[in-house]
């Protein structure tokens, strides 16, 4: 009519009265709902409860066949806004949502062809199967399934944009967002069957990746430093008790580190992160402490209790194991085979401490009492020196046994740590 620049109130009121009915002239024709969304932010990931909290910009399109007008008859007006509560709208929901906090715009844009656009801002708390085995280099794949709750095949859903366009739009807004970054958005349309009923659904797979810098700086690097210090502690003198006390201090510090780290590590009922290798590192540090205790016990053998090194220990440790680990003997120390020969030669030969005897006297002459007392003192001194020499030899033998065992256990310890570190790094590289 003349004087009107758009649909009249009476015509719109007639449409509002049909709110309860699906806006289709022929009810056998389905209503197509086109969906697109932009992932604006990942607000939180709760691995223990398997919950993902996101913020989406959702855009929904459909066609209202009763809201069509000719722009030429309405002064060229092609678009108006109407309250959404007065119009029929498809009941599109997200199936995985545990909680939906929507900030929906109360108005929709209506085109002269009857196409409606409804923008919604959703804060979704949705269920997601989170895999944390490769933490902090984990990649999560969460699913958003959009579909109608009541309508079966009379309301069909399809993507309004290509999945690549949705992914690019989301990456533009997630570039500066917190801990997570968007890898890709994939999707497909399918049919959900339940008995004789069928629903059109569209499934989006949102692939997000954790930014590991925070955890590398706060967890991996400090742990690596502590393990490096534990390895370097093997270069302390093994006969010193300071090595054991130093290792115990390291274990205490690492235990405190694990308690602090426990608040940063994710936990789930169905999986354990590979970063739990920190506990294995603690076990390795305890093993290194036990090795130090064993070596200290060997090096502090009492010569009164252990008269000499058993022959099998001398053969196995000082000969075979020393050759296996390329143990370097000091210049003033001979290998065990040479020691054995020298021991045999000295027992058969005449070498050894001097034996002091008084000068030969005539049968009728007796030595002076002072001379007898001097000979007695010299004999006691000789016996004492012999005992000290034997004790020193025994201690030297046990010291070399301890040194050889220390070299052997240190190399085994390095091999264990190297193998374990290679396994962890390889698995992380595969996941990355």
UniProtKB/TrEMBL annotation:
<dbReference type="InterPro" id="IPR049944">
    <property type="entry name" value="LGIC_TM_5-HT3"/>
</dbReference>
<dbReference type="InterPro" id="IPR018000">
    <property type="entry name" value="Neurotransmitter_ion_chnl_CS"/>
</dbReference>
<feature type="transmembrane region" description="Helical">
    <location>
        <begin position="213"/>
        <end position="236"/>
    </location>
</feature>
<dbReference type="GO" id="GO:0045211">
    <property type="term" value="C:postsynaptic membrane"/>
</dbReference>
<keyword id="KW-1071">Ligand-gated ion channel</keyword>
<feature type="transmembrane region" description="Helical">
    <location>
        <begin position="248"/>
        <end position="268"/>
    </location>
</feature>
<protein>
    <recommendedName>
        <fullName>5-hydroxytryptamine (serotonin) receptor 3A</fullName>
    </recommendedName>
</protein>
<keyword id="KW-0732">Signal</keyword>
<keyword id="KW-0813">Transport</keyword>
<comment type="function">
    <text>Forms serotonin (5-hydroxytryptamine/5-HT3)-activated cation-selective channel complexes, which when activated cause fast, depolarizing responses in neurons.</text>
</comment>
<feature type="transmembrane region" description="Helical">
    <location>
        <begin position="274"/>
        <end position="299"/>
    </location>
</feature>
<dbReference type="Pfam" id="PF02931">
    <property type="entry name" value="Neur_chan_LBD"/>
</dbReference>
<dbReference type="InterPro" id="IPR006201">
    <property type="entry name" value="Neur_channel"/>
</dbReference>
<keyword id="KW-0675">Receptor</keyword>
<feature type="transmembrane region" description="Helical">
    <location>
        <begin position="412"/>
        <end position="431"/>
    </location>
</feature>
<feature type="domain" description="Neurotransmitter-gated ion-channel transmembrane">
    <location>
        <begin position="219"/>
        <end position="338"/>
    </location>
</feature>
<keyword id="KW-1003">Cell membrane</keyword>
<keyword id="KW-0472">Membrane</keyword>
<feature type="domain" description="Neurotransmitter-gated ion-channel ligand-binding">
    <location>
        <begin position="20"/>
        <end position="212"/>
    </location>
</feature>
<dbReference type="Pfam" id="PF02932">
    <property type="entry name" value="Neur_chan_memb"/>
</dbReference>
<dbReference type="InterPro" id="IPR036734">
    <property type="entry name" value="Neur_chan_lig-bd_sf"/>
</dbReference>
<keyword id="KW-1015">Disulfide bond</keyword>
<dbReference type="InterPro" id="IPR006029">
    <property type="entry name" value="Neurotrans-gated_channel_TM"/>
</dbReference>
<dbReference type="GO" id="GO:0005230">
    <property type="term" value="F:extracellular ligand-gated monoatomic ion channel activity"/>
</dbReference>
<dbReference type="InterPro" id="IPR006202">
    <property type="entry name" value="Neur_chan_lig-bd"/>
</dbReference>
<keyword id="KW-0406">Ion transport</keyword>
<comment type="similarity">
    <text>Belongs to the ligand-gated ion channel (TC 1.A.9) family.</text>
</comment>
<keyword id="KW-0407">Ion channel</keyword>
<keyword id="KW-0628">Postsynaptic cell membrane</keyword>
<keyword id="KW-0770">Synapse</keyword>
<keyword id="KW-0812">Transmembrane</keyword>
<dbReference type="InterPro" id="IPR038050">
    <property type="entry name" value="Neuro_actylchol_rec"/>
</dbReference>
<keyword id="KW-0325">Glycoprotein</keyword>
<dbReference type="InterPro" id="IPR036719">
    <property type="entry name" value="Neuro-gated_channel_TM_sf"/>
</dbReference>
<dbReference type="GO" id="GO:0004888">
    <property type="term" value="F:transmembrane signaling receptor activity"/>
</dbReference>
<keyword id="KW-1133">Transmembrane helix</keyword>
